[in-house]
Write a structure and sequence with these properties.
This protein has 254 residues and is an alpha/beta fold. It has two domains: 1-83 and 159-254, P-loop containing nucleotide triphosphate hydrolases (Rossmann fold), CATH 3.40.50; 94-156. Helices cover 33% and strands 21% of the residues. A six-stranded mixed sheet has the order 5-6-7-3-8-9, sandwiched between helices. The chain has a three-stranded antiparallel sheet with strand order 2-1-4, covered by helices on one side. A hairpin with a 2-residue loop joins strand 1 and strand 2. It binds adenosine-5'-triphosphate. Adenosine-5'-triphosphate binds at residues 25-26, 30, 48, 50-56.
């Protein structure tokens, strides 16, 4: 029996465990025997050099990597099927649907009657209550990522996988959306892939660095204090400097 250090709290967000993950592209293992633990109800950030395999690992967790081997489970050996939402860097909004239509898309694809009032309430929560009937083309990049966040929250899954969701935004919009995401995702088990050490230290209870080929995930850093942390906090700034050193080391082993 797998002995998780992060037992699932009854009825709430589960931990996520990856065991013996292996993925080979073009005959070369990207990772092999990779282990990973995500604590329940917390945000974990995953950093690492470009090409090390972060997005591939995220897709493996989402069940989207057909070629991968290994085991992904909820810490008690159960599958994560139906408990995972995925948010990509591109907002993936459909241009012919209005904002409500984009948020309820998952329900429609599953053949369920869309809960439009809940979608409208979520759009209002992310600050778009007065744009419900707009098409995505009428929005800024930051607004579009707000819609993508509302759509992710609409799925109401206890596990959320995010692949550089704020990477394409300007610094101020990114800062605002990070705070919004931290507030709205509280209590869920989140894996956030990012290239930004400051984003990781602002939002995450655990920070992981992925390095090497085949890649491994290094032991977690657990910065002190509640999230979102103040970017000007001396501990955050010091953590950022240390993380940059670790990332430099990780790149030299990639
Ligand atoms: N479907 C695929 N077929 C072959 N190689 C692939 C495939 N998908 C990814 N790769 C390769 O696997 C490696 C890891 O890709 P991945 O996107 O997971 O890295 P990453 O760490 O997320 O990179 P980045 O930070 O640049 O987004 C890269 O060298 C990439 O070219």
């Amino acid at each position: 029996m797998y002995d998780s250090p992060y037992p699932a709290a009854g009825g709430s967000a589960p931990p996520v465990a990856v065991e013996a993950a292996r993925l080979v592209y073009d005959g070369l293992p990207l990772f092999d025997g990779l282990q990973l633990e995500l604590p329940p109800g917390e945000i974990t950030a995953l950093l690492g050099p470009s090409g090390v395999g972060k997005s591939s690992l995220l897709r493996l967790l989402a069940g989207l990597e057909a070629a991968a081997e290994g085991r992904v489970h909820d810490g008690a050996g159960g599958p994560l099927t139906g408990r995972v939402a995925y948010m990509a860097q591109q907002d993936l909004l459909l241009p012919w649907l209005d904002l409500v239509g984009n948020v309820v898309l998952g329900d429609r694809l599953r053949g369920r009657r869309p809960d439009r009032p809940r979608a409208e309430a979520l759009l209002a929560e992310v600050g778009l209550g007065d744009r419900l009937r707009d098409r995505p083309a009428a929005l800024s990049g930051g607004m579009r990522q707000r819609v993508a966040l509302a759509r992710t929250l609409f799925e109401n899954r206890p596990v959320v996988l995010m692949d550089e969701p704020f990477g394409a935004l300007d610094a101020i919009t990114r800062h605002e959306l990070q705070a919004l995401a931290a507030e709205k995702l509280a209590g869920r088990t989140v894996l956030l892939v990012t290239h930004d050490p400051l984003e990781a230290l602002r939002l995450a209870q655990s920070v992981l660095v992925m390095a090497g080929r085949p890649a491994q995930v290094e032991p977690p850093i657990r910065p002190a204090g509640p999230v979102p942390r103040d970017p000007g906090d001396p501990l955050v700034l010091q953590g950022q400097a240390e993380l940059l050193v670790r990332l430099g080391r990780a790149r030299s082993t990639a």
